[in-house]
């Protein structure tokens, strides 16, 4: 939540802005407007939103590869506005679906069967302190409690996105924690080929 441009965090992939429609002057009874900003993908590039210290909204357009750069794009962000936030969001996704033709709106998708299963994600239990022993103990505890998970998501929050600058003197770079994390997890016979 925020009230100005500098409040928009890095890597913002969707933004809904609430404002008053003051096109005919400022009135207390002016309708509330909701505007969606949906950054898009284009070729090898993706767009994201971010604020800056001048309270401006910026569009960051990147490939994720320093060797692939551009300073232009045709379709960076789709915007749509209206008075009902739910309709605005729904119409935004439908318009992006029609334009991009790379995905289907949720109304057209069949739900995967695994949604009927109970699964467990390690993030809420361990955050960044995921260990093989912790995962094993968590699975054991859930099973002994009568709710064995049918799938497991191991999430140690490796991708840190924050507005603070990178420490150039830091010896360990983002992603380097994989060198010491989860090294003791081994697949059981069920998954060995």
TrEMBL record:
It is an enzyme of class 2 (transferase). Keywords: Carbohydrate metabolism, Glycosyltransferase, Transferase. It comes from Davidia involucrata (Dove tree). Belongs to the glycosyl hydrolases 36 family. InterPro entries: Aldolase_TIM, GH, Glycosyl_hydrolases_36. This is galactinol--sucrose galactosyltransferase. The keyword Transferase applies. The keyword Zinc does not apply. It catalyses: alpha-D-galactosyl-(1->3)-1D-myo-inositol + sucrose = raffinose + myo-inositol.
């Amino acid at each position: 939540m925020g009230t100005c441009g500098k409040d928009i965090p890095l890597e913002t992939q969707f933004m809904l802005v609430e404002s008053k429609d003051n096109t005919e002057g400022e009135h207390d009874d002016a309708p509330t407007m909701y505007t969606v900003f949906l950054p898009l993908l284009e070729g090898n590039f993706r767009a994201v939103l971010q604020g800056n210290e001048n309270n401006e909204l910026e569009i960051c357009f990147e490939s994720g590869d320093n060797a692939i750069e551009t300073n232009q794009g045709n379709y960076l962000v789709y915007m749509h506005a209206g008075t009902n936030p739910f309709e605005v969001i729904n119409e935004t996704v439908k318009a992006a679906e029609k334009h991009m033709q790379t995905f289907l709106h949720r109304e057209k998708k069949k739900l995967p069967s695994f949604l009927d299963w109970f699964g467990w994600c390690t993030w809420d239990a361990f955050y960044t302190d995921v260990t093989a022993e912790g995962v094993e103990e968590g699975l054991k505890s859930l099973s002994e409690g009568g709710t064995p998970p049918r799938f497991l998501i191991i999430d140690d929050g490796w991708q840190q996105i924050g507005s603070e600058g990178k420490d150039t003197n830091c010896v360990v770079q983002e992603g380097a924690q994989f060198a010491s994390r989860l090294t003791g997890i081994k697949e059981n016979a069920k998954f060995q080929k």
